[in-house]
Amino acid sequence: MLILAFDTATDVATSALVDDGEVLGERASVAKTLLEDVDALLRQASSRPTELDALVVGTGPGSFTSTRIGLSVARGLALALGVEGAGVSTLDALAAGADGALPVIDARRGEVFVPGGVAVPPDQLDVRGRLCVGDGAVRHRDVLEARGAVIPPDDDVRHTPRAALHARLATGFGPVDSIEPIYVRAPDAERWRA
What we know:
Elements: E1 2-7, E2 13-19, E3 22-29, H1 34-44, E4 54-58, H2 64-81, E5 84-88, H3 90-96, E6 102-103, E7 105-106, E8 112-114, E9 118-120, E10 132-133, H4 135-139, H5 141-146, H6 163-169, H7 188-193
């Protein structure tokens, strides 16, 4: 089964082409170059878009706009190619990349997204002796380490929600337009309007 997976919820967008569990290629860039990355992955594997069997998309939580970009691309590709897909939490993908780690995604506004579908200030997390990974762990390194967390170096691959892990975690393929994002809180535009 040839799967195209991608996640755009964080500042680093990842994409991967996976065939029956074998990673044919991976890329990391930014959300706005996602389609270029997909094209490069397919070319690298000498594959055509029509050969894709399924899509897997990261559902967040993360940046509202970036998460929407990923879901929109997935829906457009699924419609054009007639394939099904699955959504995988960005937190789950981070956790899968570092066994036993606490995934921590930067939520802006002085908060982080953590499992359980919440956004909390990093100084409220009980991280004593825990390995913390993700862009939230990097951004709030000082606070988390002061609370006893273990955080890999900033450039460690465990901080990136790798799309190949999304493909591995995906189950229950179905209509891509039924995949729902994990937002945790309202977008900034709604907050400003209120």
